[in-house]
Specification:
Layout: H1 2-6, H2 10-33, H3 40-47, H4 51-57, H5 61-86, H6 93-109, H7 112-126, H8 131-157, H9 166-186, H10 199-212, H11 218-228
Helix pairs in contact: 2-3, 2-7, 5-6, 5-8, 6-9, 6-10, 8-9
């Protein structure tokens, strides 16, 4: 991405840098105040630009900025999927899945307040009567599903996992990840003693759950019975 940016004309690079600064500022303000209480004046001031300049880049105002942030995060997610699964041909699907889950969960934990705001607004807009945001969020979900379906299909062809629908399996992985993220938001207020406390332990837990399910092996069953006695 950086190499592509450097090949652009100077004026275009400067425009992209200003837009990035505005989005970075908006992420900070949204994380601190929430989407509904954040104002464009605060975003502009944080980015050190005038409100009019902000509208030049985002004519749709605060909602367009929010959607641009969501799109950026999906760019990051799809890029992470490609790097993690495609860039490690010597690793098993299980190992790549654990790495992907760990990196994604760590990314979430570093930005929890912002992600809570984004999830809340995604839910609100996804259920609104306005078809445009509904279409936007549907397209972003489809991007992530399509990206994750590719390595799943390769794993199926290699015989590493069962021959099920790659898209459905991708959906289940992302749903489990999303559920873990939501639980992480509640863990501090609920004590969270049963909740994995690091990105690594969460990744191992989810990988075992996804790859092995809830059924015990004969060895594990014998071990549990002997301890019960």
């Amino acid at each position: 991405m950086q190499e592509q940016t450097q090949t652009l004309p100077r004026r275009e690079r400067e425009r992209m840098a200003r837009k990035t600064a505005m989005l970075d500022a908006a992420q900070e303000v949204f994380a601190e105040k929430g989407y509904s209480r954040a104002t464009l004046e605060e975003v502009a001031a944080r980015a050190e630009y005038g409100k009019g300049t902000l509208y030049n880049y985002f004519p749709g105002g605060k909602q367009e900025i929010l959607l641009a942030i969501v799109e950026h995060f999906h760019d990051e997610l799809c890029g992470l999927i490609d790097r993690t699964f495609t860039g490690a041909v010597d690793r098993s699907f299980r190992e790549s899945l654990a790495s992907f889950l760990e990196q994604t969960f760590a990314f979430f934990l570093e930005r929890t307040e912002l992600f809570v705001t984004l999830l809340r607004e995604a839910h609100r807009m996804g259920l609104s009567d306005d078809p445009q945001p509904r279409k936007f969020f549907s397209e972003q979900r489809e991007r992530a599903l399509a990206a994750l379906s590719v390595p799943i299909e390769r794993a199926i062809h290699r015989g590493e996992i069962r021959a099920l629908s790659p898209r459905l399996l991708a959906h289940m992985i992302l749903v489990n990840l999303n559920g873990a993220q939501m639980r992480a938001c509640l863990a501090p207020s609920e004590g969270g003693s049963d909740f994995p406390d690091t990105s690594r332990t969460m990744a191992v837990f989810l990988t075992d759950l996804i790859m092995d399910g809830l059924r015990t092996s004969p060895e594990m069953k014998d071990h549990a019975q002997s301890h019960a006695i």
